[in-house]
Amino acid sequence: MKQMTAKEVETLLNEGKKVNIIDVREVDEVAAGKIPGAVTMPLGLVEFRMHELDKSKEYIVVCRSGGRSGRAVQFLESYGFNVINMTGGMLSWEGKVE
């Protein structure tokens, strides 16, 4: 499983890179703040919403601490998606939130 730290993700955003972030936390958790531009897709809905994703794109998957995003990454990888787990999740995120 490919992984990236919260700091590495923040650096990509600060450099103006186009990154596709999927936040798999529950709606009430996301309400407390999410990475700007992240798409909310609770873990339980990933299976039903993966048709919204593009296999030619790379996605960074985020949750609270890195566990649920790890499960989402394994699941999406098994369907041929190019996904990266953000280790440490939002607990290690020091960048801007919206």
Structure overview:
The protein has a single domain (2-92), classed as Oxidized Rhodanese, domain 1. 30% of the residues lie in helices and 21% in strands. It contains 4 helices and 5 strands; from the N terminus they run E-H-E-H-E-H-E-H-E. The protein has helices at residues 6-14, 27-30, 46-49, 67-78; strands at 2-5, 20-23, 39-40, 58-62, 82-87. Strand 4, helix 4 and strand 5 (82-87) form a beta-alpha-beta unit. It starts with a strand and ends in an 11-residue tail after the last strand. Residues 15-98 form the Rhodanese domain. InterPro entries: GlpE_sulfurtransferase, Rhodanese-like_dom, Rhodanese-like_dom_sf. This is Rhodanese-related sulfurtransferase. Pfam families: Rhodanese.
Produce the secondary structure layout.
Blueprint: E1 2-5, H1 6-14, E2 20-23, H2 27-30, E3 39-40, H3 46-49, E4 58-62, H4 67-78, E5 82-87
Parallel strand pairs: 1-5, 2-3, 2-4, 4-5
Name given to the CATH architecture: 3-Layer(aba) Sandwich
Strand order of the largest sheet: 1-5-4-2-3
Low-confidence stretches: none
Count of helical stretches: 4
Estimated share of beta-strand residues: 15-25%
Main sheet properties: 5 strands, parallel
Q: According to CATH, what is the topology?
A: Oxidized Rhodanese, domain 1
Global geometry = globular
Tally the structural domains.
1
Helical residue percent?
Answer: 25-40%
Number of strands: 5
- Roughly what is the average pLDDT, rounded to an integer? 97
CATH class bucket: Alpha Beta
N-to-C span: 28 Å
Specify the structural class. Answer: alpha/beta
- Name the CATH superfamily classification: Rhodanese-like domain
Radius of gyration over alpha carbons? Answer: 12 Å
Order of helices and strands: EHEHEHEHE
